[in-house]
From TrEMBL:
Stretches forming TPR repeats: 91-124
Matches recorded under InterPro entries: DnaJ_C3_Co-chaperones, TPR-like_helical_dom_sf, TPR_rpt
PANTHER family: DNAJ HOMOLOG SUBFAMILY C MEMBER 3 (PTHR44140:SF3), LD25575P (PTHR44140)
Ranges where the record places region Disordered: 1-21
Protein name as catalogued: DNJC3 protein
Organism of this sequence: Pomatostomus ruficeps (Chestnut-crowned babbler)
Length: 152
């Protein structure tokens, strides 16, 4: 604006600056609500921010945490999957998705997600531990299903 001032550009810059200030205020309120364990309010504020900042992986992860606390695992998975795509090496998102699927009793999807985590980092302690646990469960379920098919 200093090099080539014009009314339209100045108005646009002011509008963007005002919008930025508003988003920062909403972000502060969302963090405060999360820390006070008011997850419903935090989700509402994060919804407003993410309507503008759709590519922010950290905000999606925060909203996913709120969804987990509110008992809405499918919405948490949706946000975590988006966050995993937005960050190239987001092992934590894959780990959390796998853990949620495991808690929901979907061992196959849990195994698939934990494998994605291990593809990114073979030495990820939490993912490797969960992988062993889910793989063992998967093997036991397959064995039980085989016994059922045989009528034993």
């Amino acid at each position: 604006l200093k090099s080539n001032p014009s009314n339209n550009e100045e108005k646009e810059a002011q509008t963007q600056l005002t919008k930025s200030d508003e988003l920062q205020r909403l972000h502060s309120q969302a963090l405060s609500a999360y820390q006070q364990e008011d997850y419903e309010a935090a989700i509402s504020l994060l919804d407003e921010i993410l309507a503008v900042c759709v590519w922010d992986a950290e905000l999606r992860e925060l909203r996913a945490e709120c969804y987990i606390k509110e008992g809405e695992p499918s919405k948490a998975i949706s946000d975590l999957k988006a966050a995993a795509k937005l960050k190239s090496d987001n092992t934590e998102a894959f780990y959390k998705i796998s853990r949620i699927y495991y808690q929901l009793g979907d061992h196959e999807l849990s195994l698939s997600e934990v494998r994605e985590c291990l593809k990114l980092d073979q030495d990820h302690k939490q993912c490797f531990s969960l992988y062993k646990q889910v793989k063992k469960l998967n093997k036991q379920i397959e064995s039980a299903e085989e016994l059922i098919r045989e009528g034993r």
